[in-house]
Design goal:
alpha+beta, Porin, 6 helices, 2 domains
């Protein structure tokens, strides 16, 4: 019984204290009561200076007067179109080996397995670096490309091939004032819905895997006045890398790339 009376007394005192607070300035009292400790105050978001200045210049914009965090959320970054690039291309399935790349020795694939590939790529720029190498300033970009390839072999129905990886793109070339140029190379994984006939013919009697390493190489050329509209020359190389299988397939092509 005493315990119940004590609890009732505490509840009554708390209720009276609450009513007294309601008669005072609610904003000031709430600020004093719920003030964060110093250790927790450091965890609160930092105001974006640019955003605050914009709100000061446009007080009638109707935006909420809550400062955004200085660090953008990942979703907000992905929505930024200027980080994206899209490209379409057509390539010819080739019989070129890796050592032919250095001499640009292209060999067309003849017979079953020959054909074309149709590529659609969306790439997101993850980061841009600014390096000083000796007397040269290098500013490569790190991209996350996803390429959907439709393989159209002469003796098979068209089937998809999925590619995902990372790509470095170099843009600093001394002749960019005449022809804006980029060079990109990367690596990742490729999964094909069917085994390429060209892959089977080049490695008869061997195990062939649907999963391979993806090694893209890409050049782009553009007018300096319109650097975002680019002519693209590329090599799509897929290889088992002695892990999934041995050897692989290649396709050489051209296309159009637009960078936002």
């Amino acid at each position: 019984m005493r315990m119940h009376n004590r609890r009732f007394g505490h509840l009554l005192v708390g209720l009276l204290w609450f009513l007294s607070l309601c008669q005072q300035d609610a904003t000031a009292q709430t600020s004093n009561l719920f003030q964060l400790p110093t250790s927790l105050a450091g965890l609160t978001p930092v105001e974006s200076e640019a955003w605050v200045n914009r709100e000061r210049q446009n007080p009638d914009s109707g935006a909420a007067s809550v400062a955004e965090p200085q660090r953008e959320r990942l979703f907000d970054k992905i929505k930024t179109m200027e980080r994206w690039s899209f490209s379409v291309g057509v390539a010819v399935i080739s019989d070129t080996r890796v050592h032919d790349y250095f001499s640009l020795n292209y060999k067309d694939f003849d017979g079953p397995g020959s054909g074309l590939t149709y590529n659609l790529t969306a790439a997101y720029r993850l980061r841009e670096f600014d390096w000083q190498l000796w007397k040269f300033r290098v500013q490569p970009q790190l991209e996350l490309p996803f390429m959907l390839t439709l393989v159209d072999e002469d003796d098979k129905q068209m089937f998809p091939d999925y590619n995902l990886g990372l790509k470095f793109r170099w843009r600093n070339f001394p002749w960019n004032r005449y022809v804006s140029t980029t060079f990109a190379v990367g690596g990742g994984l490729s999964y094909s819905a069917k085994i390429w006939t060209a892959d089977q013919r080049r490695h008869e009697g061997e195990h062939r895997s649907h999963l391979k390493y993806w090694l893209p190489i890409e050049f782009t050329l553009a007018l300096p006045r319109y650097p975002q509209h680019q002519l693209m020359l590329f090599i799509d190389h897929q290889s088992g890398g002695w892990m999934f299988d041995t050897g692989g397939v290649d396709a050489w092509g051209a296309g159009y790339r637009i960078q936002f």
